[in-house]
UniProtKB/TrEMBL annotation:
This is phosphatidylinositol N-acetylglucosaminyltransferase. GO terms for cellular component: glycosylphosphatidylinositol-N-acetylglucosaminyltransferase (GPI-GnT) complex. Gene3D superfamilies: Glycogen Phosphorylase B. Coiled coil: none annotated. InterPro entries: Glyco_trans_1, PIG-A/GPI3, PIGA_GPI_anchor_biosynthesis. The keyword Glycosyltransferase applies. Pathway: Glycolipid biosynthesis; glycosylphosphatidylinositol-anchor biosynthesis. GO terms for molecular function: phosphatidylinositol N-acetylglucosaminyltransferase activity. Its EC number is 2.4.1.198.
Length: 414
């Protein structure tokens, strides 16, 4: 299978025009797989009037499905009134989601996790064989995230936060940590970039403690603006309560910032000990970690840190390792539905039977859609070969707008 070129579908609830860790991972990995000669299509839900097929940088085809997404913060209907999905469970509890995870991963050939901790958790929760799970980390575009040419003065210390302002990202923790840090260190100032339902709590905190001149709220920050925000600070603060990897930490380190982060998930695996200060997700320990980081600042060399990141992380390397996993998956024997149903029965006495019914219904719907597609093709007298495939577009066709954002090279409405 070595040298085989694949047709790859990336399915994600998060993608451009939004930008975060998942969006960055899908975009950069897809771009590098395109460079290796594979054909890649990204499928996501529609964003506003952004619907249908679009082409972005280097001919990456994106299909914005014109369907309303599941509600992220609506636990009951998301879990119990729809088919099982792997996102949208918010704080529903791991008991229900373990079954969903077992169902989702029962029929896979290979799986990829971004950290050893994530791999361990996935194996424990889903019951999948460890031999099927590979660890391939995230990476960072070090050409885009570079330090400021001029070293910042330490007369005023700036702590940067760029995150979705939601519970999972520890926004409530920030509300308690920031006032205490400002009280202990009069020379510290905060810059907060990001939007979300917890933004109101941060605004209330700023008003309550009269920190308007020391806590700057930027609102939503586009991906093209992230570097300019990062290089205005000395320390990057990550307060996530759960995190498989955290690309934002890589971006901050590539820009030469010392990181303070909660010790959760795969975060301890991301950076060497001298580039990050870890803390428990509790206000007192976070304040202690910030204090320690401030004391370490005189010894931090942003340019040296950037060069170390270039050696540690590369999207090209991630793509090559991912390609190996794809090759192994393609070597797995193809089995029909009847042979695969016993895998779902191992998910539990009642859950296994339920999952088998779901898969049978899914199979029947697929066959119905296939039949309707054939009838439609006959009706409009077009052969199946007329269905559009992803064109081969070389890297010279890459297009960026004046802000460095992704731009559409071509667009078709459904």
């Amino acid at each position: 299978m070595e040298g085989t070129k694949h047709k790859i579908l990336m399915v994600s609830d998060f993608f451009f025009p939004n930008f975060g860790g998942v969006e960055s991972h899908i975009y950069y990995l897809s771009q590098c797989l395109l460079k290796l000669g594979h054909k890649v299509v990204v499928m996501t839900h529609a964003y506003g009037n952004r619907s249908g097929v679009r082409y972005v940088t280097n001919g990456l085809k994106v299909y914005y499905v014109p369907w309303r997404p599941f509600l992220m913060q609506n636990t009951l209907p998301t879990l119990f009134l729809t088919l099982p999905i792997i996102y949208g469970f918010a704080d529903a509890g791991s008991i229900h989601m373990n079954k969903v995870l077992q169902f989702t991963l029962a029929d896979i050939d290979q799986a990829i996790c971004v950290s050893h901790t994530s791999k361990e958790n996935t194996v424990l929760r889903s019951g999948i064989s460890p031999e099927k799970v590979f660890m391939v980390p995230n990476a960072v575009d070090t050409a885009m995230f570079t330090p400021s040419p001029k070293r910042l003065s330490c007369d005023e210390i700036v702590i940067v936060v760029i995150s979705r302002l939601v519970y999972r990202k520890g926004a409530d923790l920030l509300v308690e940590v920031i006032p205490e840090v400002c009280r202990l260190f009069p020379k510290v100032r905060f810059i907060i970039g990001g939007d979300g339902p917890k933004c109101v709590r941060l605004e209330e905190m700023r008003e309550k403690f009269s920190l308007q001149d020391r806590v700057e709220m930027l609102g939503a920050v586009s991906h093209a603006q992230v570097r300019s925000v990062l290089i205005s600070g000395h320390i990057f603060l990550n307060s996530s309560l759960t995190e498989a990897f955290c690309i934002a930490i890589l971006e901050a380190a590539s820009c030469g910032l010392l990181t303070v982060s909660t010790r959760v998930g795969g975060v301890p695996e991301v950076l060497p000990d001298d580039m990050i200060v870890l803390a428990e997700p509790a206000p007192e320990d976070m304040v202690r970690a910030v204090k320690k980081a401030i004391g370490m600042l005189p010894g931090i060399e942003p340019q040296v840190m950037h060069l170390r990141m270039k050696k540690l992380y590369s999207w090209d390397d991630v793509a090559k390792r991912t390609e190996i996993v794809y090759d192994r998956a393609m070597q797995s024997p193809t089995t029909n539905l009847l042979d695969r149903l016993p895998r779902y029965l191992t998910c539990g006495s009642w859950a296994g039977k339920l999952f088998c019914i779901v898969m049978i219904i899914n199979y029947l719907v697929w066959r119905l859609l296939e039949f309707l597609q054939w009838k439609l093709i006959r009706l409009i007298t077009q052969p199946a070969e007329a269905i559009e495939e992803v064109p081969d577009i070389g890297p010279l066709h890459a297009q960026l707008d004046s802000r460095g954002d992704l731009c559409e090279a071509q667009e078709k409405e459904i």
